[in-house]
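Q&A log
Question type: sequence-to-structure
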Amino acid sequence: MRSREAESIYLLREAYRAFPKMAMLWSIGKDSTVLLWLARKAFLGRVPFPLIHIDTTFKIPEMITWRDQVVREWGLDLIVARNESALSSGRTFPAGVSTRVECCTALKTDALQRVVDTRGFQALIVGVRRDEDATRAKERYVSPRGVDMQWNVVDQPPEFWDQFRTDVPSGTHMRIHPLLHWTELDIWRYIKQESIPVVPLYFDRGDGRRYRSLGCAPCTAAIASTARTVDDVIAELEGTRVAERSLRAQDQESEDAFERLRRDGYM
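Response status: OK
Response body:
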């Protein structure tokens, strides 16, 4: 785990050197919380850039309670972004739009674009991993986004010998992916190694169910599990072949739903 940690910290420090206006996306999930922990390690206990949480207002309430507690305890600079116009006009699934992809675009992608444009961020640090999904496996460590946050999946820059593209044309930004080479098991083994706090929703609390992937409450289902500790989760993952996002409803609407979301700027 130390080599993975070192690679991620190197990427965080290089990104901070290259992009004066940078922020980190924090979904409150295990991956972005590990990324937050790595950022604190990289910069001697502090996080020298703001965090962005895209608040759809449909998150599981325990996630928001835990988020606010960590912000207070770690002294974080948190930007909470919402698409207020979509929420006030009811452009959410199923009443206001016909698909979950449209809902995600309005509440997440559009909200993110607004905060990037308003704050003028040149780069966003994101906790995606290659093993999560076939679409994310096509990513680069430093990945350009277009004027409308679009991702050109067929025209990704080469990254040989740790040489990363850092030129940012006006109106665009870069996505930095320090966890790209990690796996779900790596994340949990690192959580154990470092005693990193995570949302209690990841553990069975007596009803034989827990969350493996967190998102909006209407689109995220718990799995059957009796894992109550980090060791239990690790043991469970070592014996499963079920995909991590198998119970995320938006991924199941069509075969290419997640790729279409990411091409349009989704995390």
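Response note: The chain has a mean pLDDT of 87.
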